[in-house]
Amino acid sequence: MSNDGVPKTYPALPHLPAHVGIIMDGNGRWARQRGLPRLAGHRAGVENLRRVLNAAVKFGVPIITLYAFSTENWRRPKEEVDGLLDLLREALDKEVDKLHHNGVQLRHIGDLTPLSDDLKASIRHAVELTKHNDRLIANIAFNYGGRDEIVRAVRSIITEGLPAEAITDEVVAAHLDTAGLPDPDLIIRTSGEMRLSNFLLWQAAYAEFYVTPILWPDFGEEAFYEALRSFAGRKRRFGALDEA
Ligand code: FPP
Question: Distance between CA atoms of 158 and 90, rounded to whole angstroms?
């Protein structure tokens, strides 16, 4: 949306990523710059989540995976962890019906085990309610870690009793939380850090990486388009040579 409230249009891009992963970083710095508590930054981050989901629908990105809480984020002060859990609960309560109405299919990746029963129930309700929607698949990575996901996949493969020679890339991928979805073509990280931070370790093998200094609460529609424009200009070789 431009400043005058008129929806902004953007030139069509020659190709779009089928799946975009986003590491939503910089909420704390955004808050500090304004003399606000860190949780105010996370709250602004949730607001921005809505803008970016709308932008994904507008641009025609079919799948988006958002890194909301990592398996390492439990190490933050209890007040911040509790605040993030509350924000997720609040966002689910307030936003799910609207997202459902807009054709968004919500999914969760990560380990639900340590979450409270009511939060698990809210997540399961959102996933169940929206499971037939097909305008946008939005994966929320909450208590997600790439290594933890691979460990859980290996455990389930062993539990199923698969013989060693049956293990292929496809078998491993089919036991990850993202089973059935294409790998991300583009991973965006806001706030300038150049790390993957345990995000989609297996799936990111050939993802294009885009880092912007913009802090997550300020990463709006135009910034998202800029990332998509950068992606559209990249040459991907997947380990091979350029075609003659
Ligand atoms: C990184 O900012 C952000 C997070 C750890 C959480 C991301 C969470 C949101 C966008 C909102 C929560 C979403 C849901 C659905 C609950 P940071 O705190 O690391 O920022 P800093 O590096 O500037 O301190």
Answer: 37
